[in-house]
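Allow me, if you will, to draw on your knowledge of protein folds for a short while. Thank you for your consideration; the sequence and its tokens are set out here:
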Amino acid sequence: MASMSAAAMALTCLTAAPASAAAAPAHTVSRYVPLTGAASDATAARDAGCAEGRTGRSGVRVLFFGTQESGGRLRHPGTTAGSTTPRVPVDNARAYAAQWAAGFAACRTGGATAQLAMGVNNKSDGGVAGATAGAEWARIVTQTARQVSSGPVTIVGAVDAEPSWSPRAWARDWVDAFTGATSRTLYAANSADSCPTYGSSATACANGWSLGDLHYVATGAARSIHAIPQIYRTDGIQARQWSAISSWGVRNGAGPVRFAGAMSQRMACDQRGGCTNTNNTPTAAWTQLYEELNAHSDTAVRELPYVTDMRWP
């Protein structure tokens, strides 16, 4: 009788295991890519792809190429319109991604595969309309996917949409145009600037955006969108903001956010410094998001397959 009771207690413990019992997946490395237009871009791309292939890890890798500007140009990540950094033709991103894929394929171990997400941000200071920029980026992603049509790398899209960087209409137009032009996956590696946290009755975020806008550009606009939000802060507030966004979707008939993982910036912080309480490790970022989502029945997830850490090239 005593042994049966012990067995029952053990079963109870197993079935009631908290969400925190889940382990974070091994992280991939994503990159900010300040293209120069020189031949060295191709070498850097192959080296970056090779380095990821050698890890033997499958998963999403994001390449952020910066801001789209008028005339089909790209401006470096982390810069403003007044920056004097080189501008390059947007098609240079296609060449870089193709070289990254070649490097990954040449060096991979353990049968690793990669979803290579070609990304830009939503800064609206480049003199190009959101719809025009979204359609242009869909073209670049589609053309790259045709070029890299076999092997272990699948080309998809990405966007770093942050409320502080554009009017909400610009970002919505970008996402609508991208998803209207291609069915390829779009990973939304977005921030949730000044959004409320779970349990708040507020819905306003920064720069005139709302929880509804954040949900739309991270899930609601199309079924091809999957969110890998920025969970940089060590205090966990960003995870609580994203559970609020997902809960808003459930309560308003738009469904929960389709989370694919979490994004950290630990390596980028180690490289450049200046990260006050925004240097989560990949494991911490994933754990904060996973545990917060599973703390509420309306936002709970069965899995959160990816975590990726940003770095400079």
In short: Residues 130-147 form the longest helix (18 residues). The chain has one domain: 24-311.
